[in-house]
Amino acid sequence: MPHKKEIMDKLKIINHVQQTLYLRYHKIIVHNKVGILDIIRKILSLGFYIGLVLQDVTSDEEHAHHAVHIIAIDEDEIIFKNSWGDERVYNMKIDDLKFKLGPYTFEMEYFLFYLPVKVKDIPIETVNSLETMDVFRRWVDDYVRQFPEMMAPVPEIIATMPEPADEPPPIARSKTPTFEVGDRVIVEGESKPVTITEIKNGNYYFEYLDEYGDKRNRSVFRFQLTKVGGKSRRRTRKRIR
Question: For site-directed labelling of 47, which of 81, 96, 179, 183 has its Cα 20 to 30 A away?
């Protein structure tokens, strides 16, 4: 899987090219099947995929409408890849009335073209008749012819990308402090140091005097502790003989 930085770098290049060439991505929905295979071949030749939306009219479940992407054409069949994480590809004839995919029986609903176009040259948005299909077919022919010329400046444009700013050095993280029984520590919010008497299940115990002067036990978490010195040692008195 690509690293996040690699993805962000690619997106910066795409945005830079789009802005310089005055491109935008435009969605075109095609409901017609007549002549669609030839159009798909031409768009695939430019290196794009085409979406295909399938519909299971008998189902009201989550995948009643399901999108796949077309990756190739084989004579009179569409070759597409599913979008459920399945690496297999599937062949489907353009005139298939039903197509079995998992527990669903799909029909073709519409084709989805999502292409970079010049802002001033927005094509038709919905193709749902022979007349609009003819308009779309002529536009595709012009688009395929003009595409190499339209994208020719891309290497030069990428070369003009502003140099990325130097990334700040990573923040040096201090090592997580460790504590042991006998360490003198200050508990967050307190002022007097105490001595750790026990460590159990992630809790650090120490003794303190309550308001009546009685000894009590209390536990805290590690992040509440700050070490203030070495281990507490018992002072031994020399025996006087």
Answer: 96
| Range of the structural domain that residue 93 is part of | 14-159
The answer to whether residues 100 and 58 touch, using CB atoms and an 8 Å cutoff, is no
Q: How many domains, the chain?
A: 2
Taking the alpha carbons at both ends of the chain, their separation in whole angstroms is 78
Burial of 196 (0-12, 13-18, 19+ CB in 10 A): buried
pTM for this prediction? 0.60
155, 187: one domain = no
pLDDT for the residue 174 = 54
Q: Produce one character per residue of 13-49: b if its CB has 16 or more CB atoms within 10 Å, e if not.
A: eeebbeeebebeebebbbebeeebbebbebbbeeeeb
Residue 187 tokens read as 């508990």
User: So what's the pLDDT on residue 237?
Assistant: 45
Q: What is the pLDDT of residue 164?
A: 61
Residues in the chain: 241
CA distance 80 to 71: 5
Domain shared by 45 and 153, yes or no = yes
Residues 6+ apart with CB under 8 A from 129: 32
For residues 31 and 127, the answer to whether their CB atoms sit within 8 Å is: yes
* DSSP-derived secondary structure for 31-82: ---TTHHHHHHHHHTTT--EEEEEE-TT--STTSEEEEEEEEEETTEEEEE-
Query: According to the model, what pLDDT value does residue 160 have?
Result: 82
Task: Please tell me whether residues 34 and 108 are part of one structural domain.
Answer: yes
